[in-house]
Specification:
Number of helices: 17
Oligomer: single chain
Number of strands: 11
Largest sheet: 9 strands, mixed
Helix content: 40-55%
Shape: elongated
Radius of gyration: 29 Å
Strand content: 5-15%
């Protein structure tokens, strides 16, 4: 049974993690006997995981010497001479091992089993990082400044880092990838790899809908309906197609979102619902839609504060427990940002973090974003991608930028009253276009023109 004395150092202020010294000896000796093992194990093993300094430097010395060799073993004498040379030049920061130490180490070589011993070292190193992480968590918990929201999210993020530390770059030869490319060329996207937007023309433009790993930006001036169109995306994903979806609402309450979704699904006038004046006919229509709405894997968070660590914690939990595939954030400028030189840099960092979140978990992240006053200064009032507020990094990080425009928001008597344009201003790897939809504000929804 593990006790405190097993995991705490002598001063009881810092943890000591497990180490596998025997495995480290075998690995350091084996690369001298077969230097090519350094390349063979590069994708799975990191020599910095070795805890005995001089054994790690034997590895580095062997790696240095092998650069001038084409094949064959490296004798221990050459390795010792390299270490002595480094010590004389000041490059070696530890006492140089003796000739006898290096010679004795050489006899421990077991090249055939070296990958197995390397895996033991990696496992011990991860365990050591877990111990260190636990120590940090204890210090946070004991601190008088402990904040459950921030600290728990940070601890969970750090734990993810512990698990990922051993991951290496996934490098592939192009000829290994071409086969899958040819298969994709003749296989239409399915529900499994695309998320329908709920709009026929938009789905066609995006080859079936949004794809995992994408960062989608929906930009508009205030009161244009960007929250409504985001809810339409959520309804199409969760209610129509059963795709687990999370809405992070920093502006509306859960109750307001629930009301609006019910109105959109059951075609109930929103102002009637707010007045408690819904008719029996409307209630009958609602009763028919309620089972589908209740069965939808649609999650809503209306916390007034949302930081990147908090969001990441929620996403990680729902990906693991519910298979989350879509996250909608309403809206970007209301999220908490980390300290930075200025607001533009803070938003740029946040935008990049959201893109990395989408890529890491293979989900779609949709962020709503306020536009600056640029559209109002133009005659036609149409927004442009350059109108995204506070940072050009938002445009750079986004895979898709959709700008929402309604002429009747500026001119009540417009001949296009009731119409709304979804202007796809950026589409990485695909065409851009303007998709015209119908805005049914009284039902809190946008729909395809054909549905009107």
């Amino acid at each position: 049974m593990t006790t405190e004395s097993d995991i705490w150092g002598p001063d009881e202020t810092s943890p000591t993690g497990p180490a596998d010294v025997d495995a480290e000896r075998v690995v350091a000796a084996s690369v001298m006997a077969r230097p090519e093992l350094i390349d063979d194990t590069a994708a799975e093993f990191d020599p910095s995981d070795m805890t005995i300094d001089w054994l790690r430097w034997v590895w580095h010395a062997t790696d240095e010497i092998r650069q001038s060799l084409t094949k064959g073993e490296i004798r221990w004498q050459a390795v010792h001479r390299q270490l002595v040379s480094w010590k004389a030049s000041g490059y070696l920061p530890i006492p140089c091992p003796s000739e006898d130490q290096v010679a004795d180490l050489y006899n421990a070589a077991n090249p055939g089993s070296m990958p197995w011993y390397a895996a033991r070292i990696t496992k011990a190193a991860i365990a050591a990082r877990v111990v260190a992480h636990g120590h940090n968590a204890i210090l946070r918990g004991r601190s008088a400044a402990f904040d459950p929201d921030e600290d728990i999210a940070a601890i969970q993020t750090e734990l993810d880092g512990v698990a990922r530390t051993g991951e290496q770059a996934d490098i592939s030869m192009l000829n290994e990838l071409l086969g899958d490319s040819l298969v994709r060329a003749v296989t239409p996207p399915t529900h499994e790899d695309r998320i329908s937007t709920g709009f026929v023309d938009l789905d066609a433009l995006f080859c079936g809908g949004f794809a995992g790993g994408q960062l989608v930006v929906v930009g508009a001036r205030p009161a244009m309906g960007k929250t409504t169109v985001a809810q339409d995306f959520a309804r199409a994903a969760a209610i129509a197609n059963g795709i687990p979806t999370l809405i992070e609402s920093l502006e509306m309450t859960k109750e307001e979102l629930s009301d609006r979704i019910l109105c959109a699904e059951a075609r109930i006038a929103h102002h009637h619902l707010k007045q408690g004046a819904v008719t029996d006919v409307d209630m009958a229509r609602a009763a028919r839609r309620v089972p589908d709405i209740q069965a939808a894997p649609l999650y809503v968070n209306d916390a007034s504060i949302l930081s990147m660590p908090m969001l990441r914690s929620q996403v990680r939990h729902l990906v693991r427990t519910a298979g989350l595939r879509l996250v909608i954030i309403d809206y970007l400028q209301l999220m908490q940002v980390a300290k930075a030189e200025n607001r533009q840099q803070a938003i740029a960092d946040l935008s990049r973090s959201l893109k990395l979140l989408a890529k890491e978990f293979g989900i779609v992240v949709i962020i709503l974003c306020q536009l600056n006053r640029g559209p109002e200064q133009r005659t036609e009032k149409k927004p442009q991608v350059s109108d995204l507020r506070e940072s050009g990094a938002i445009e750079q990080d986004a895979d898709i930028v959709i700008l929402l425009h309604r002429e009747d928001a500026y001119e009540k008597e417009s001949p296009r009253a009731g119409e709304a344009d979804l202007i796809v201003g950026k589409h990485r790897g695909g065409p851009t276009a303007t998709i015209t939809t119908a805005f049914q504000g009284h039902y809190s929804r946008f729909v395809d023109m054909a549905q009107t």
